[in-house]
Structures are given as structure tokens and as C-alpha cells.
């Protein structure tokens, strides 16, 4: 396992914040461990977070990636995807991601994908513009320069000139129509659709038990990748 996660509530500047994240590492766990310690701190350090969360999250992602690259002798040549969610006062939800870990919102039982999977084939033009290439060799999965199966990631110094680390950021108001949010690494999404995950989770009131059941179901479906999952149930 090279996955790390965050799931906690904190008081910050008079607000209740829920901080949730899954970091799916590759070529070692140093980068996801670094993200677990530093990414949310970097986001909240942005002075304009309360007035322009989208810009602040994007700037913090980029600044964190630069810090990882500058510490590459200690952190190694690996990297990590990330999906993060910030819940402000239980009313506003901000989701960001790089890579293929995913956030899925249940709204009245219907699955709504809040993140964008950054796959080499879908961002081929960007990769090629940066001097890289996309190849299905070796194997049958599209990879940047035949190595990495995502087109955006933290770290990966050897590939960084051909990769992006800027996140896609989305937001939603949390109201009575929103049931819960699922964050999970690609080990779950490779064997389960968004709606299937929502259908499983909505039957289980306790969010921790719901997350555990989603992992168990992924294993039953013979997922071969790391599986990490968080379920955040809204009070409604």
C-alpha cells in the first residue's frame, strides 16, 4: 500500500472545517506521506482562501508540488495522485484533484462525479505539447512516456516536464438534497461505477462502515490496485 488519507474536523478562524483527502502514491510512499502532512496546511495558509477558494486551492497545489520537487533527494523520484475535499461550516463543499482518485457526490441517491480523471489519452495533446508521448506499451494501459498511467500528479521529477500538477476544482452547496460524498483511489473505481458505489453506501448509515463495505466489495470484484475509501455523510 502506498496510499495515505486525511479525515478530520478542525476549528480554524472561527469556522468548522472538514478536511478529507486520499493520496495514492506510486514508486514509494514518500510523496503521499508529505502531502498528508502539508497540503491542507498550504491551502489554509493562502490569505484569499475565504474569498476565492478555487484560486487558493490551485495555488497551494502548485506550491506543494514545487516543494516536493525541491525535496526530491529526500522524497525520491516517486509521485502521488490526490483528491481533496474541504467542507466549510457544513454548508460549502470544495473538491480538487490531480490524477485518477475520484470524488462522487450522492444527491437524492443519484451519483454525481465531482472530480475529473486525468488520464493520458484524454490529455494526450497537453502531454505531446510538452514534448512527451502516450504509449500503451508495455501492457494495455495508456501511460505517459510508457511509464505513468495518469497525466497529472504530484512529484515524478523524471516526468515532470511532461506532466501537469494543476488541479481541477469544483464546488457545491450542501443542502438537504445531498446525502454523502465518496472519496476513493482508483482501485475502487476500476471495478465499480459511480452509481454502484452510491447504491452500496446509501444502504449503510454509518459512514465508516459504508467505506469499509465499499473496500470489501472492491476486493470481492478482484481489484488488483490499492484501495482507499472515505465516506462523508452530510447531516441534511
Automatic annotation (TrEMBL):
Gene3D superfamilies documented for this protein: PPM-type phosphatase domain
Name assigned to this protein: protein-serine/threonine phosphatase
Pfam families the UniProt entry points to: PP2C
Similarity-based family: Belongs to the PP2C family.
Residues covered by the PPM-type phosphatase domain: 1-234
UniProt GO molecular function: metal ion binding; protein serine/threonine phosphatase activity
InterPro entries: PP2C, PPM-type-like_dom_sf, PPM-type_phosphatase-like_dom
Ranges in coiled-coil conformation: none
Keyword line: Hydrolase, Magnesium, Manganese, Metal-binding, Protein phosphatase
Reactions that this protein is recorded to catalyse: O-phospho-L-seryl-[protein] + H2O = L-seryl-[protein] + phosphate; O-phospho-L-threonyl-[protein] + H2O = L-threonyl-[protein] + phosphate
The enzyme's E.C. designation: 3.1.3.16
Needed co-factor(s): Mg(2+); Mn(2+)
PANTHER family, per database record: PROTEIN PHOSPHATASE
